[in-house]
């Protein structure tokens, strides 16, 4: 039998932040970390949905040590406010799970003018991680940053000449580029941490095809009812559960032996099954591309990590 949530080591005394923890794999990830004793912060855009998730977790995990803090990754002012105001025991952070994301949405812009998928899936988490980095480094050995990518990253390489797809917007290409950006970010962060001698581990995960609301949100936003119903049916018939989809994130965050720049995903055809090392496109290991994306991300967000990372 493969690795399951029961194999998560004891997390007592540790603090975790899970973005997008109000539903889907984010909710499961937060619940299971809390079940193992971590003080878990639900970082969510919607306060109402976060409170519902908080109540659900408390029902399923009596005595869970959880808290809610508002965060909108599509608004850098919200990212900065979260980083400034979030309360962490001892002002240290052991686990940051960059889980929140959007998928295949119609053309939209963030509050800062970024293409919505690149802004929410990459630039927001990039800024958040940089702002929280001092507290992650203060946690010492065992601290990890896990960024959730997708098996569909292979559909599109990041184009630094058109990062916001001003020339021509295609929703699935935009999604693939943002998920490739997640892996390039992890790769470059791992390189910088290794060069500085830090024990902080930067890893990535992908959930396979998991039953969440991501598949239907895009068609719903445009009123494409047939497409929405088709996506919902496909999800019911084919997808694995959110519980199974969360396992790669949980493994990357807690399993012994997860090294820098690891990419964890489902065992069976990148789609479903217990977590293991996942295939990734060659361009996500390109040092030059990851460095150039890093520099562009610092410029766009105004969040500079420093070189080398202290």
TrEMBL record:
Pfam families: adh_short. It comes from the Bacteria. Keywords: Oxidoreductase. Gene3D superfamilies: NAD(P)-binding Rossmann-like Domain. Belongs to the short-chain dehydrogenases/reductases (SDR) family. NCBIfam families: PRK06197.1. This is NAD(P)-dependent dehydrogenase (Short-subunit alcohol dehydrogenase family).
